[in-house]
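Hi both,

Apologies for the delay on this - the queue was longer than expected. I finally got the magnesium ion-bound model through. Below you'll find the protein sequence and the ligand SMILES exactly as submitted, and right after that the structure tokens for the full complex including the ligand.
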Amino acid sequence: MVASEQTLVTGKQLDTLCVNTIRTLAIDAVQQANSGHPGAPMGLAPVAYSLWQNFLRYDPQNPLWPNRDRFVLSAGHASMLLYAILHLTGVKAAGPNDEILDKPTVSLDDIKHFRQLDSRTPGHPESHITTGVETTTGPLGQGCGNSVGMAIASKWLAEHYNKPGFDLFTFNTYAICGDGDLMEGVASEAASLAGHLKLDNLCWIYDHNHVTLDGPADWSFSEDVATRFLAYGWNVLRVADANDLDMLARAYNTFLETKDRPTLVIVDSHIGYGSPHKQDSFEAHGEPLGVEEVKLVKKFYGWPEDAKFLVPDGVYDNFKQGIGKRGADLHAEWVKKFNDYSKQYPELADQLNHIQERKLPNGWDKDLPTFPADAKGIATRESGGKTLNALAKNIPWMLGGSADLAKSNKVNLTFEGAGDFQAGKYGGRNLHFGVREHAMAAATTGMVLSRLHAFCATFFNFTDYMRPTMRLAALMELPALYVMTHDSIGVGEDGPTHEPIEQLASLRAMPNMLVLRPGDANEVVEAWKLAVTQTHRPTTLVLTRQAMPTFDRTKFAPAAGVTKGAYVLLDAPGGKPDVILIGTGSEVSLCVEAAEKLKGEGIKARVVSMPSFELFEEQDEAYKESVLPKAVTARVSVEMATTFGWDRYVGPKGKAIGMHRFGASAPLKDLLKKFGFTVDNVVAEVRKVITGA
Ligand SMILES: Cc1ncc(C[n+]2csc(CCOP(=O)(O)OP(=O)(O)O)c2C)c(N)n1
Ligand SMILES: [Mg+2]
């Protein structure tokens, strides 16, 4: 930046004024809410100020601009830092259809309502509530993981859509993280992956402030972070004083010049910097400063001691002249470029519009497989893989991969041109996450936040390694796709460590997660169709390792019943069942066999396939009654998982057949016998239910 000495001084004073405005807004908001973390925003204010004001390619008037740099606050407890910045830079709010509204995303009034019910300033940043919050953070480490997915998305989009003279996608991703983030496993996995992929568009800024909540950071954290990141293949920079705006600028410039590797900027800071009494102390940094301390701090900053939520003259304007002007120019330039691009590459531009609107392309569902009736059948992971390939071929921005189990999960995209996403070869649609389930899920979130149709896969049992991220995707109302195979004791010989028991119930318990466990190959196709058409919730597809029959749909109800969550697959003669058998996934065919045997005994059974609790709950009462009539209280559910949650459908007079312990290592046929997943046992339980024994 070139400036006369006179303006440089004024500029520095203005910089300090802006930095202290961020600090005091955070202090006042936390004090007023009487909860929250003032320390991290105080320490990080200059770091965020320098980045936003002078570097971030971001237009506050167009916060959804696809090529904006992404700013991720992985240290979500420092939320007031982000809210203050969003407020001071004048970032606009977007409406439900992404329309930019003529109002700020965070007003001063919103800051005064920090952490209050229905405010736009919740305790931790939530992306579905506050425009400008790129991802929901709070559980430490997650933002770091998400940032890797955003960096992947930028590379992938550039590879597919940039053309000579049209560098449409060049965005960088910055993430601020603290000691806590860097102690978390997910961030380590993510850093390892980012280094491997040489994501030079990724910059993490580590707030090295020597404290965590419990005390000095070195009580629990003493490794050499710099050396660790060098070993991951990152460039590591150091800024010795968080208040040194010149050194911060140098670090950001070095990041921009660094090729072939991500950058970690280690910033030495003091929590609650500037507080005359609490400097360098860890006490109370996770709580309000208290009225007296607030006054002392303000005095130290040269602030009027009694002023609250003060934004001094010149502060808004300074941001307008800085990020405001730069961002508007960059955005306008991009829009012009995109308009020209649209003329030259109409098809690609059309794809980009679809991506931005989360719309599927025309013909996305053409060439989907249909599976002929087959008593032996195929595993749902197999039919899933075939369906996924058909879909991905039709949806050019669908990409994903597995945590080193792609062959087992059957998620390899094998059609021509699918390719592998590798360092320096960023166009591939098969991602290789390595054995890093947590980072895989978090990166998938980052890609979906970047509006790509991303999926990830592993064994169902290992959702336990992804669950914190899946939960955030559900909270964020994000249509991430999880392909989870090897879904039960059907795993067999691998034994109980690999056999999911409680995972189904646990994901069904998660709000806004769509769980689908299809009962045959054609149900799989329906399930996948549902999965890719979701726009506001993630989907977990729960698929088998082992083969299962494909039903003859000329004799059974159409698989489209999946859309209703549960449907009558096979009805009792006359539609008047003595008993209702409810199965999911691989147990549906067991229910069908049992129904046939019961028929021989004069017992009329209806078989309900129930791939999704959530979708069934969304149906109206009349439909639910038509599937599970209240009058029929003899009901037996069969599912190779914990029975937890099934009482809702089998009722007090019914019986849930399921797992009541961990599984075991043995050939599947032996496990089925041991745990009662046999026609004879189902029939025996039906008899008991009917006779009330
Ligand atoms: C996964 C997870 N565990 C625990 C917490 C609770 N928590 C919030 S901040 C924090 C640690 C703070 O240490 P650091 O990351 O160094 O942040 P600083 O206090 O220095 O701002 C903890 C444990 C959390 N938010 N997420
Ligand atoms: Mg810390």
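Main takeaway for now: Residues 315-344 form the longest helix (30 residues).

I'll put the files on the shared drive as well.

H.
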